[in-house]
Amino acid sequence: MKRRPSWQQRPWILVGICVAVAVVTLRGVTARSGLPDEKEPMLAHIVFFSLKDSTTANRQKLVDACHKYLSDHPGVVFYAAGPVSDLERPVNDRDFDVGLHVVFADRASHDAYQSAETHLKFIEENKDTWDKVRVFDSDVTAPVKAK
Predict the structure, then answer these.
(1) Cα gap 41→19, rounded to integer Å
(2) How many contiguous H segments (helices) and E segments (strands) does the chain have?
């Protein structure tokens, strides 16, 4: 009597191998795409600046400073800065002049950003123009989308 290979006797072994290959492949795609590892949440760092002298020119000056000093840090998954929108809805909090939105791949990237020379230079050059600064940090994850 001819003996069948082990994987034919136990089909779950073949299923397990397929799952392992899929996981390794997906992890490789995630690493190459620059997306963060799904095990650790990303950190969303959202800052709302209120200016002492709230003019269109001063708002743009602060946005330009954000772009100059804050847009290119290691571990940044998403960066954007801009003035408060003119969209008026009852639920909108419009008590700010400029919003800064930075999503870091992980908390370590955020922590490094906080002490980065360019971040500290941004603060030093602009802090005298601020009336109020509100910072909202949150651990965020994105849904896994089926392909």
Answers:
(1) 24
(2) 5, 4
**pTM, two decimal places:** 0.72
pLDDT, tens digit, for every residue of 97-124?
999 999 999 999 999 999 999 999 999 9
Q: Are 100 and 47 in contact (CB under 8 A)?
A: yes
Show the tokens assigned to 107.
């908390």
Q: What is the pLDDT of residues 69-103, one digit of tens each?
A: 999 999 999 999 999 999 989 998 899 999 999 99
Beta bridge partners of 47: 100, 135
The rounded distance, in Å, linking the Cα atoms of 107 and 128 is: 28
CA 77 from centre of chain? 4
Which string of b and e fits 73-88 if b means at least 16 CB within 10 Å?
A: bebbbebebebbeeee
C-alpha distances (whole Å) from 24 to each of 7, 15, 30 are 20, 14, 10
Q: 62, 126 in Cβ contact below 8 A? A: yes
Structure tokens at 63: 């946005």
